[in-house]
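Researcher: Structure prediction, please.
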Amino acid sequence: MKRFIHTLITSAVLMLAFSCQETELLEVDMNESIVLDLSSGETRADDSPAESFVSHLDIFIFKADQSGSGYTQGEKVYYGRYSVNNASSVTLNTKRSSYGKDDRYYVYLVANTNRPQDYMGAVSSFNELQNEMQQDEYIYLTGLNLQNAPKYFLMDALAKDSSDNSPVQLNNGVLSDNTVLTAELKRAAAKVVINITAGSDVLFQHFTLTDGSADPESDGGLYYVRNLPYDTYLLAGVDASNIEAKRRTTMKGSSAYFSWHPETVSNKVSLTTYVYPHHWINESLLDQETCVIMNLPMVFKSGTAEETSYKNSWYKIPMSKDQKFERNHYYEVNITLNRPGATSDSNPQELYDIYYSVEDWTSVEVEVGGEDRPKYLQLNTALVEMH
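Model: Predicted structure follows.
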């Protein structure tokens, strides 16, 4: 029975190794495995699947050179691309015995990059990897099934050992051991959620003609992002304070991330968008500030005055109180709207009564009950994972 169980586990590990690799396959013995455990990464409980999905990994191993009392990244000794498909671990197609006994190494992971494999494999040093950048002009639509929009988020991690240390030891000289490293992938983007609630004087409204068609005088519910930062470094920790981020203004439109349904929900609007890190502290707000320009047609009635229809009501919404975005952070913008906007987006009404919050875009407590919209943990008894 013991031999049967050992054979079963060995087969399972080998199957996982074969299923996770795009590069040339190499059969790795049980006691020669280097395994990356990806299960430590956590995301917010209400995230969409696209926000934490890992499609493929580029893995770099650099020799750690002694430098005084510490280490620095030395020569590149390994590169591989792996098709992960959201697996919780990856077994590398390189043997432990290929690495010096008791030597130390830095293991870097880059997930979901849009760079081709041969391009990434040509990166020859850590400095070169550290300076690599990625552009995603449609970062704000990530996860939507739209042309040019990224399917998943760029992420990165530095692998650590069981004591949460790096650089790591890949070969301790004990043949019966495996090397298991943990890697907490974090997104290169920031998430911004804007929640707008109509005040007592405001009623959001679609304007239509008598035949039910859209009123041509109204642009309807639309938005666009001004000064959207759309490029970033592949690795976290790069000092980008002196780098001017690439920015663009998106086209007017709506998307599945824009909740504008006045026919059913006449007092609430929300928008989810994504941006790459950027800061415009001490810079011109007109030239640098990242903001949303949004049209919210409405009927406005204040006190005993008559109702007034605003077929176009444009607003400017600053997206960050601190005039910066950081990687893997969650920004929430909450607004109660009590005034009509401008009739044109060329000079939108700027909103000031805004409540901002910022936190790490990581895990949140799951509270069962006691909320207007409680979240629940669900046990799936039909799925068994064997590691």
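Model: The CA atoms of residues 279 and 381 lie 46 Å apart.
Researcher: Thanks, that helps.
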